[in-house]
Amino acid sequence: MRISSTSPSGISDSGRTRLAKLIRSREGPLRIAEAAEVLGLGRRETSWLLSAWVRRGWMQRISRGVYSPVPVETQAARPAIDPWVVAATLFSPCYVTGWSAAGEWNLTEQLYRVTAVVSKRRVRRRRMTTGGGEYLVTTRLLPTEGVVTRWREGVRIPLADPSLTIVDMLDDPALGPGIRETGRTLVAYLRSDSRRDDVLLRYADERGNGAVFKRLGFLLERLAPAEEAMIAACRTRLTHGYAKLDPAVPAADRRRLARWRIIENVRGIGEPQERA
Fold first, then answer.
1. Strand 243-244 to strand 262-263: parallel, antiparallel, or no bridges (unpaired)?
2. Are 186 and 162 in contact (CB under 8 A)?
3. Spatial distance between the Cα atoms of 271 and 268, rounded to a whole number of angstroms
4. How many CB atoms lie within 10 A of CB 127?
5. What is the per-residue burial (b if ≥16 Cβ within 10 Å, else e) of 10-43?
6. Exposed (0-12), middle (13-18) or buried (19+): which is 81, by Cβ within 10 Å?
7. CB atoms inside a 10 Å sphere around CB 144
8. Could you check whether the bond before residue 272 is cis, i.e. omega within 30 degrees of 0?
9. How far apart are CA 259 and CA 241, in angstroms?
10. What gap in Å lies between CA 46 and CA 49, rounded to an integer?
């Protein structure tokens, strides 16, 4: 972000100096404690200063205690901040996954305005709107591998690699969104250069959720029946108990498939046009 050489109105000389120092200190949103450290001020004074800049249009309040400078040369337009940049700040430690990552890896042609995130940080609401963006957040421990880096607006964004993206969708089909789109993304993965069967199985083993292999085996058998080795690998990892094919769908029609220990509460998966 660059500071204009012209003297903006509504802010003192010392204020312009502090604002310039803050903007040059880092890219993307920042928290009050970070701003206080850069400015050499106390937390209360920094909070007051940031709020004053928001009222005058020099800062944007992304969320409680999180702010982003508005570049002087684009102040009037007040452009929306990249939602991935906001997510990396608000939900850290976290990573972008689900349909958002699938789009990055060309595993889906669907475009969703909601950014899917896995975060170690517990949030009050799973689905929220903040900073001009919408987010779907899954809270759980972060994986030991499978997270790579992308840079957006000078900010490091943790992102699920293709195999982790698939495992996340199988673990929580809402990140798909839904089991049908998860199945389509799985088929795209099987056809892609990003396919790594051993990596996919290793990530799924690490997840420790038996439902992942139940859903994966079911989808493979319906959508890619020629994948015999992968299907067999899922069979050897079946756990006791039944899992819903899609937990977000009411299981009123409780058709239980003993072969995969799945409650098939979504019908019609495996039509000819869906298969790999």
1. parallel
2. no
3. 6
4. 11
5. ebeeebbebbbebbeeebbbbbbebbbebbeeee
6. buried
7. 8
8. no
9. 12
10. 5
Q: How far apart are CA 219 and CA 214, in angstroms?
A: 9
Kindly state the tokens that stand for 182.
């998860």
Q: What is the largest CA-CA distance in the chain?
A: 73
In this structure, which long-range contacts are made by residues 228-231, counting pairs with CB atoms below 8 Å and at least 24 apart in sequence? 229/197, 230/197, 230/201
Phi-psi region of 201 (alpha: psi -120 to 50; beta: other; left: phi over 0): alpha
Q: Could you give the CA distance from residue 191 to residue 187 in angstroms, rounded to a whole number?
A: 6
Vertex 138: Cα angle to 233 and 177 (nearest 5) = 70
Beta strands 66-69 and 30-31 are antiparallel
What separation in angstroms does the CA of 95 have from each of 117, 235, 239, 266?
Answer: 6, 30, 28, 29
Sign of CA dihedral 269, 274, 275, 276: negative
When computed from its CA atoms, the radius of gyration of the chain, rounded to whole angstroms, is: 23
Domains of the chain: 13-74 (1.10.10.10), 84-274 (no CATH)
pTM score, two decimals?
Answer: 0.73
User: What amino acid occupies position 155?
Assistant: V
Joined tokens for residue 218: 């079911």
- For 191, other C-beta atoms within 10 Å of its C-beta total 12
pLDDT digits 0-9 by tens, 91-125: 999 999 999 999 899 898 887 889 999 999 888 88
123: its two tokens? 């949030």
User: In this structure, what token pair is assigned to residue 214?
Assistant: 């139940």
For 180-237, the pLDDT digits (tens) are 999 999 999 999 999 999 999 999 999 999 999 999 999 999 999 999 999 999 999 9
220: tokens are 């493979």
